Structure formats: structure tokens, C-alpha cells
Amino acid sequence: MIRGVSSDTRCGNALRWALSLILVQIIILGDCINGFVPLIESVCAQEAEKRSINLKEPIFDVRVEGNESIPALAILQKTKIQRGRPATRDMVLEDVRLLFATRWFSSVVPVYRKTEQGLVLVYKVKERPIVEKVEFRGYKKIKLKRLEATTGLKVGSPFDIAANQESVNRIKQLYVERGYRFAEVKLLKGGDPGDRQVIFEIKEGPKVVVSKIKFRGNKFVSDGVLKTKLQTKKAPLGISFLGGKFDPATIQDDLLSLKQYYNGLGFFDVKIEEKVGYNNDKSRVQIEYTINEGKRYKIRDIMIEGNRLFSEDEIREDINLVAGEYFNSRTLAKDVDKLTTRYGELGHLFAKVTPQPRFLETPGEVDLVYSINEDKPYRIRKITAHISGDNPRTKSSVLLNPMMVAPGDLANQRLIAKSKRRIEGNQVFMKGPQDGPRINVTRVDPNKEMLASRENDVLRGQNADEQPTQKLRHPNLRYRNKTYRQTPPQRNQDLFKGLKTEPVSYESPQPQRTGQIFRGQNYDNGIPEPLNPLFGQSPLGDPMGTEFPQQQPGWVDLDVYASESRTGRLMFGVGVNSNAGVVGSIVLQEENFDILRPPRSMEDILDGTAWRGGGQRFRAEAVPGNQVSRYLVNWTDPYFLDTNFSLGVSGFYFTRYYTDWNEQRVGGRFSLGRQLTQEWSVNTQYRLESVKLYNPRSPTPAIVQASVGDNMLNTFRISLNHDTRDAAFLPAEGHLLEWAAEQAVGEYTYSRLEANGSQYFTLYKRPDGGGRHILSLSAQLGWTDTDTPVFERYYAGGFQTFRGFRFRGVTPRENGIAIGGRWSLLGSAQYMMPITADEMIQMVFFSDFGTVDEDVSLDQFRVSVGAGLRLTVPAMGPVPVALDFSVPLAKESFDQTQVFSFYVGFTR
């Protein structure tokens, strides 16, 4: 019971409660002023009755009054207070908030009533008007369901003038997003308090697409290249549904992109103006850019400041942008990367190389000053993994295994960046600038952390110098006779402000240490011994050595962050090529498999925990076809037992219908490999196969007849690889070399030696790095012993090995039947160049050559030449469509030729 409290206090409490409810109304409703006075009066009037009301008494009933069209049951379903339980003030306020949130009511007043049965809570409500009709007039290009979903209006929903007016804006925005920039939307009904119908009148207007993009005044850069820098794209063939939607907001972005592109090539004074024109019905837009390129700036001189660790000659070895050449921001960025990498390899993780331009009075000339802040070397104290996601299951070792540095190592900037790229290549984690992996480097405060005891070793009687070593300053006499602009154009300076001074790409480094990497552990060893132990870690350095003071290494912590991605995939595809005919594919792939995490409950299966989290790869594929079929199950652990060894196990079933016989293979493979360095790797493999050869063509050669039926293969193989390619897919620089030896035992005993190599050269590229012309040279050499069965001998021909000849068209024959050779030497030279500026269409010119023979010989050497196209279609996957035409220049009479070869694939 409410006793012992004055009426003023009780009324004051009631007023505070009422004001709280009013605040809820103001926040949620905003226009329910008519409900305020009854609320205050109702609550204050109850104070006289509260002398006999116990608010801790359970609620006997909850009722609704004032509702006309909305059932009380539907209203009470929105509240939380239940019968038979007490209702606190906060609970009542929460129910009021929930009722206002429905937007059904303009007023909600809670009232207590004392009845014979008990305490009753009554919500007195005042309903908003209800929408009786919603109509959209004049729409054709957008479906009714989409309009209804955009507005959210429907019959029976609360009538709200503000919501109706907001729906007008939403509909117009929807049309603008679809390209109807001149669409008009009017609210015919629904804007007056007395309305109960909501009617929109829509005038869609034309869909506006870009029909033409023109450039005037550009001489150095072609129209095609400039178009690749624009967000705005032309409608293909003028067909609107294929793209080309016009958005005026992108024009300014396009202007900025064009200016930045020209600035990056040294055109600092470029001026670009745009002009937008419409046709009569405003359905087509023509955009014209007028460009005044101005002079292209050359580098007159390059100066270096702040370098102590490296001489100026050593610094200049890493600078490709030399005096006398045109300025190029891409080359400049690479130079900065190489310089920071040079320092980073010595542990100077926070060294900064800042290129500063000095514009001269002479037009078209600029000096570059590389300002270097070397900082000091750092070592790694600890590495911590942070894996995020909706329900992260991945073990921390999956994130730490690709790291090429460990606690105690020098903080090698290149190795840290290489580690990041290795993590990015792991399909377990998300990619991209927002969600992709990142490595945060944090300096350790020496005043708060206990470092190695040798850190404080100083000469007796001296104090440790706590101040950072000052950079040596030398008078710069080179500027004495040079005149510079007093105020360089700000737009030119902006180019350098945006220049990345952190490493972007690195050469493949060699590890700085050998032996076991203990990942995830702290390193607490002391600082390495100085070159001259007599002087210890003196701040004055070794008087026998360098003239500069030796700085104490600092310590850093590495925090590695990554977010789990969707690692399970079910893919469907279809392909057709001149070697294997038509094939379909169904692939189940899991990039984050864990063979040691079987399900322990149904929940593990439902939430995806089972068989996941170990960073292993599992792949099951079915590839049926009219000429070849393959079924495969493969499991690979790239870091077996958290080491640099990889382990793989696979099982397969394979059938192939050759011209001369049919072949069926069932078996498995076991492989163990190790990445020796970033470029060198070694792999061993054991293969066990049951090979069935059947339906041979007649007359059957003896070597073929000897293998008809079931055969068992047991082979051991070891291979060594050296890979310096800049990309595993469509490389432009570097090489891939492989040496392999294989020994078969058991039913067949023979040896096999192979060597393969590919070298890639970029012979030409635009100043922006695009439009590369790539020359690729490749060679394959193989020899196998006399006991080799016919199904393991060498064959050539087809788009993968020897264009100009049919699949397996280059081989020794007996009675017209291919029997394979024991010796194979194949080579290819190919020149690829883009036809379009976006490099979606490329042309190739090639020559394939070589021989397959019974013995080591070049007597039957073949040569073919040809040309082809590479068409990249994003909707069909990353592998381009290959169309090749080739003609043999040298061949044997029994060879089978083929002028046209192709590959087309589609995967989803």
C-alpha cells in the first residue's frame, strides 16, 4: 500500500511518470499533442485512489479501451506485461513504447483500476486513421511488388501523411537508380488529414543511358585507355538493358580520375573540361571531354637527404626514375617501395622515404628530393592471431602458419608484407581492403616492458643516451644556383601527398633464419652480441667499426587480424575443348577443412563446426563427359602438423575413350612436400593405380596388346621446383622450372626423367603499366625407360601441348595406331598483346615445335605457327576463352593435323 507519503509527493511522482510517458510520445510519435492533457489528468486523478492500490499486487487483467478497428487481442500481443504478475513502472513504459512503435495510435494512456477480482491495467488508446486504398498510376518499367516494397504502404496500415510524402521520395529515388532520371512522382491523395486513400501518379520518362563518350585534344593517351579510367560507361550497341546508365554524380569523379592519371604520367598542368548533351527526348547522353594536356614534365635532378646506413650510390641503385626521364608516379612508387624495403630488411620497420617535388621556373622540369628518415631497427617480441566472424571456428595456427617471421626475428618489412600476401592467398579468410587480412605493428614501450638484460649495458661511468640519434645534416650546396617556383601549383603537390610510401609489392626474399619456427610464443632472448664484444652495447658504438652511433634495437608486437569467409562451395560448370569434347562438372570444395574435428553432436553439424577450422583443403569433384570422365576426392594440409611440410592424399576414378583404345584408371596418390624458400620447393609422391586398357583397335600392335586388361602401377616421384613468377595465373615476369625423377616398381619397372621450364618477359607496357605485351617461352623434356607401358609413354598434340596437330596426333605409330614415344622434346614461343584498352580481348602469335620419338633423336622434328584470340568474359569465370588457328610447317606423313583448337569453360 502507498502510505506515509504526502499527497504533493505522490502527485509529483505521478507528474514525473506522466512526463516520462510524454517524452516517449514525443520521441516515437512526434505529433501526438492531443494525447498529452488526458495523460496528465488521468494519472493525477488516480492519486486519490492509490491509497487503496498496491502496485506490487499481481495484475489480474490487461485490457484495451478506445480501439475501434484494431482487435484488442492484436494490440495486447504487442505488449509484454502478463496477467498474474506485478507490473513495474518501467514495464508499463516499455509497453507504451511498444504500442507507439506500431504506429497504430496517436495516444496511449495507461490506467490502473481496482476491481473486486484484483488490479486491472487498462491501456486507453486513440487509433490513427487506417489506409483504405493504395494505388500507383502510370508505372510500366517497375513492377508493382517492387513499388509496394519500396513504400511499405498497404491497406490496413496506419495513415501517416509524413510517411506518404516520404514514399514519394523513395519512389523517385528508385526510378533514378534504375536510370530514369527525369521520372516525376506526385501524391494525388494521402496528403490531407481527411484522406484515407494513398494514390501516387508516376511519369516515368525515358531511361537515360550514355550513348557516346568523346575525347578532344588528347594526343599522348588514346581514347580507349582514357575510357578505362572512367566510372561512366557507354551502353553497348546503344541497348539500355546491357548497361550504360547515366549518373551525373560520377562525372566529377571521372574528371578527377582523368587528371590523376595524367598527373601520374607527368602532365602536371593538364586541364580537362566536360560537356554533357542530351538528345531531344533526353533518353541518350553524349559526354565530351576536352583535354589540354600541357607539357609532360621531365626529371632534371634527383637528390637524397637523410641517408646514413646506405651510401648515395647504394640508394640510387634502387631508383629507376632517373634524371632526364619523364616523371612517372608508378615508377616513383616502385622506387619508394624498393627503398623502404631496403631499410625494412634491416629491421628499420618505420623508416620513411618521402619524395618531395621542387618545381622549377623552367616549364616542364621538376627536381625530386628523396627525404629519408631511417629510424632504428626493431625485433619482434610476439605475434598474436585474431580471427573474427559470425561464429569463428578456425584455429589460430591457420593464421600463424603462413607467417614468415617469428618472435625474436628482425622485423623484416618485406617478410611481414610477404606473410600478409600469403594469408591473403588463403581461401579461408575474406579479402578486400575492408575485410581482408591485416597485420598491425605496435612498438613496445621500453619503460613498461622488461627487455633483455643486455639492453642497459653501457660503458662504466657513462649514462645511457636516452635521446634518439640525430640525423646528420649536410649543407645542400646543389640548390645554390637553381631557381624554383615560389609557389608550386597545389594540384601538383597533391599528387605526392597521396603517394604511398609503405611497401606495396616486394621481391621474393630469402629467410633470415633457419630451423624450427615456434609460432605464437614470446621471444625473451637477449640482444645479439655486438661485432666488438669489448664495448658491449655502448651508445657510442664500436670505435673499431662504423663512425655512426649504433642504435639499440626496439621491439614490436605483431597482431594479425583476419575474418573468416565462406569456405564451403558447391560449384557447377560446363566446358568444351578440342582435346576432351564436352564435359560437365560438379565440385564440392571446403577450404577450411579439419579432418580431426568430426561431429560430436547434431548441433556441430547444424552450426557448421564439424569438419571445419583446420585450414586443410577438401575437394570432391565429378566431371562426366562424352570423351573423358573424372571423379576425384582430394585432401591436402598445406602446413602439416603446423610445419612447412604439406601433406596430400587423393583417390580417383578416370575413364577416357581414345581413338585407339579405351582406358580406365582407379587409384590414389600420397604426396609430401616442403617449401624450402619462397622460390624453391620439393615434393615427393607415391602413386598406386589400377589401369584397365580395353577395346583396342585392330590390327593391335604388340606393345598395346601387352597392356590389354588390368595393370598395376606403383611409382615413386620426386620433384624440385623454382618459381619466380609474378603471378601463378597469367604471369608477365619470371620463370617456373621443374626437375623430376620417377621410378616404377612391381609389375612394371622403369625410370623416368623430366624437366619443364617457362620464362615470361614483358616487352612493352604503357607508362601506366597496362597494355603489356608478353613473350613466353616454354620447354618440356622427358625420357622414360624401355619397360614403360603404352599408357604411360609420351604423346603430344592439341591446344595444351602442340597446336596445329590433333590431340595425341604427334607420336610414333604402328599400323596407324599411336604407340607413344620414350623421348619427348616440346617447345613453344608465344607473343600476347591486348587489342582493347581494357585487355578483355587479346591476340596471340605463337610457334610450337618439338618431337616425340622412340629414342633420343631430332630427326622427326615438327614445327607449327599460328595466331589466336583470348577473350575474357567475367560472367564465365577467370579463365579466358581460347581460340587458336595453327598450321604445321614441318610434320611427318603419319601425323594427324588440326588447324583450329579451342577452350571454352563456364563455372558458377
Automatic annotation (TrEMBL):
Subcellular location: Membrane
Keyword Repeat tagged: yes
GO biological process, alphabetically ordered: membrane assembly
Top-level taxon of origin: Bacteria
Domain POTRA as annotated: residue spans: 57-128, 129-205, 208-294, 297-375
UniProt-listed InterPro entries: Bac_surfAg_D15 (IPR000184), BamA/TamA_POTRA (IPR010827), D15-like (IPR039910), OM_assembly_BamA (IPR023707), POTRA (IPR034746)
Main location class: membrane
GO-annotated cellular components: outer membrane
Keyword Membrane: yes
Keywords: Cell outer membrane, Membrane, Repeat, Signal, Transmembrane, Transmembrane beta strand
Pfam families xrefs: Omp85, POTRA
PANTHER family, per database record: SORTING AND ASSEMBLY MACHINERY SAMM50 PROTEIN FAMILY MEMBER, TRANSLOCATION AND ASSEMBLY MODULE SUBUNIT TAMA
Name assigned to this protein: Outer membrane protein assembly factor BamA
